[in-house]
Amino acid sequence: MSGPLLAFAAVYLVAVWTPFGQRAENALVVGYADGAWMADASQSWGPPPLTQDLETIAVGLAAIASIAVARRRWLAGCTAIVTVLSTIAASQVLKNVLLIRPDLVGADDNLVEVSFPSGHVALTAALVAGVALVAPERRRPALAAVGAAWIALTAGAVQALYWHRPSDVLGATLLACAGYGAAHRLLHPGSRPSMPRPWAWTALLPAVAAAATGAGHEGTVAGPLVFGSAAWICAALLWITIARTSPRRPPAAPPRR
After folding, report:
1. Any idea where the domains of the chain sit in the sequence?
2. Chain-wide mean pLDDT for the chain?
3. pLDDT at residue 134, as a whole number
4. In this structure, which long-range contacts are made by residues 221-224, counting pairs with CB atoms below 8 Å and at least 24 apart in sequence?
């Protein structure tokens, strides 16, 4: 848990509290938000949680509870729900109350509002983490891969729409990673996470397409490249966090002679 929280603090300090960090992220805001590929969708059907965020939370919590009841994992279900709600609440308190954004570079008014961490990405990542906590262990990597694509799409879109900066989406994901790590340690004390095998990383390929779709923006190239890269990193961070806690398949037994 300490690793994601230290990374969270580092991202905040470098991106928000240094002139270099502020200039670098402000330079990515080129053109208008309606040039984003997801602009029309964000005004109509979504995808969630770009719209209907409260409904998304309700559906996600209902899914977690249903899985926990079906598997009779009462402690895991309660822990997952608390983890989701705590992560979402923490993102809002940190963004709106505790983590200020000083104007170090004389930026325009639309660039000085607090935005770290992203509430939309924290919501998405928290729900993916919550489902992983109650899902069967061997299905976690597959579920995490689907969730990673959802996170990549959401993180790319909130940047392309100029709702958030790259640091905001990274910070939100790290917050969710910390919450998942703490919950997993509570449920599985003494467990030792291990890195997924090389072939398992192919699970992140759909997240590449999702990140590119969400980050797309007309009239600029540099911004979408950075936005898409940050979105994919968000997906990879949470996928790795979840996949590391999933047991590997035991080696096949040698044939009997």
Report:
1. 2-24+50-243
2. 91
3. 96
4. 222/28, 222/30, 223/28, 223/29, 223/30, 223/159, 223/160, 224/160
